[in-house]
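Class, study these two lines:
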Amino acid sequence: MSDDEPAREPVEGDARIDALERRLADAQQREDLRKRPKSPESDADYRAGNRVLADLLGGVLGGAVIGYAIGYFTDTNPWGLLAGLFLGIVVAFRNIFRAAGKRPGE
């Protein structure tokens, strides 16, 4: 059997086949709408959310690592770690607030 030829001749006037063809056309139309490219606004929102997450994680983890290193070398480990965490959180939230104040195109 060839891919170019149908398996059988179409039956004219069969209500079941007509209903199936309408359902297939509707499903194809819904699938085309679903696969349509997303709007640039939603992409910008996604990037902004990722940036907020990266700023928050980077600030906290970076502050923790730097604070631990300073505490380790100065022999004030729990206080160095706590100070580094605090400063990392402050820097992370400052970056998030700055990013929230910007317009999307900037």
Q: What stands out?
A: The two ends are 59 Å apart (CA to CA). DSSP finds three helices and no strands in the chain. The helical segments are 15-34, 40-74, 77-101.
